[in-house]
From TrEMBL:
Residues 43-187 form the AAA+ ATPase domain. It comes from Jannaschia rubra. The keyword GTP-binding does not apply. This is ATPase RavA. InterPro entries: AAA+_ATPase, ATPase_AAA-3, CbbQ/NirQ/NorQ/GpvN, ChlI/MoxR_AAA_lid, P-loop_NTPase. PANTHER family: MAGNESIUM-CHELATASE SUBUNIT CHLD (PTHR42759:SF1), MOXR FAMILY PROTEIN (PTHR42759). The lineage of its organism: Bacteria, Pseudomonadati, Pseudomonadota, Alphaproteobacteria, Rhodobacterales. One of its GO terms (molecular function) is ATP hydrolysis activity.
Length: 333
């Protein structure tokens, strides 16, 4: 590893430690959730936060925008939301001299950090408005393509228990989320600390640690981090083993999985293991990073068959079984 890159990784690691400390002033506990959210942003991707109402998902996104120094907008997704409410629209204006011309008014998607709150409440037509933005970082309105600010990240929230009036996210959109993050209930001690910290006279404010240029530079460092052959091979082995029609699929995948992850899952793992290592102060990822990130990366890129769901098979258990098998085979090799 070149000395210059080594120094950049160490300096960035120290800055990320400062950022996590700033986030902790407003987000108590949820270390894994915060870590995965930061890893997604360091990887240049988007994250889907899945959890029950009232667990601090909105607060987390707002805090991330502040600490990372990004301009942020929030969209509350509802069944009557239209694509133009997200992307913007052209309006016909009349000038003082009586002439008329169309003027484009930007929608809330023109932000560096977009919070899509309860994303599954919008109709498929509105959800599809995000597809181009999430992949190409641009939108096309009235035949004209417009670039989005850089960096551009979507952090979406979804409440799993509210099924009335919701529309499942299409597979193409789910695949564009780099990672799915499960937000669980806090333990008793953490919940006690939350109650005391958020019901007093004044709440703590998180300072800005990064800015947009700093985050873009950090993303470049992540992409330059070295990855050993053993990690690369494990990523490929794991992703390919989760495809039911692949030659590398174990019996549990062939029996229970309807469709598996594509190459984008391997790309996501390659970026996230680097970001995970960086957040933990290491200079390169190892196979355990792949194992820990298997569920968040693969869980929304796979689906169980109808028969497996009827039998009560859980997708997380299938992923864990395949991951353990891949780890064993990797050690044996």
């Amino acid at each position: 590893m070149a000395d210059e890159l080594l120094n950049e990784i160490e300096a960035l690691g120290a800055r990320l430690t400062e950022a996590r400390g700033a986030i902790a002033t407003r987000i108590i506990g949820q270390d894994a959730v915060v870590g995965l959210s930061l890893a997604a942003m360091l990887s240049g991707g988007h994250a889907l936060l899945m959890g029950l109402p009232g667990l601090g998902k909105t607060r987390l996104v707002e805090t991330l925008a502040t600490v990372m120094g990004l301009s942020g907008n929030r969209i509350q997704f509802t069944p009557d939301l239209m694509p133009s409410d997200i992307l913007g629209s052209e309006v016909l204006e009349t000038a003082a001299d009586g002439s008329r011309a169309f003027r484009y008014i930007e929608g809330p998607i023109f932000a560096q950090l977009l919070m899509a709150d309860e994303i599954n409440r919008a109709s498929p037509r509105t959800q599809s408005a995000l597809l181009q933005a999430m992949q190409e970082r641009e939108v096309t309105v009235a035949g004209q393509t417009r670039r989005l600010p850089a960096p551009f990240h979507v952090l979406a929230t979804q409440n799993p228990i509210e099924q009335e009036g919701t529309y499942p996210l299409p597979e193409a959109q789910l695949d564009r989320f780099l990672v799915k993050i499960d937000v669980d209930y806090p333990d008793r001690d953490t919940e006690r600390a939350i109650v005391l910290a958020t019901t007093g006279g004044a709440e703590a404010q998180a300072p800005a640690v990064f800015d947009a240029a700093g985050l873009i530079a950090a993303q470049a460092v992540v992409r330059r981090m070295p990855v050993g052959d053993s990690v690369v091979e494990m990523i490929l082995d794991l992703v390919r083993a989760c495809r039911p029609d692949g030659e590398d699929a174990p019996d549990t995948v062939r029996r229970h999985v309807a469709w598996g992850p594509g190459p984008r899952a391997a790309q996501a793992l390659m970026l996230l293991v680097r970001a995970q290592a960086l957040l933990e102060g290491r200079l390169a990822p190892d196979p355990t990073d792949v194992s820990r990130l298997a569920r968040p990366v693969l869980g929304h890129r796979m689906a169980l068959s109808f028969a497996a769901r009827a039998e009560g098979v859980l997708l997380d258990e299938v992923i864990d079984e395949v991951t353990d098998r891949t780890m064993r085979l990797g050690r044996a090799a």
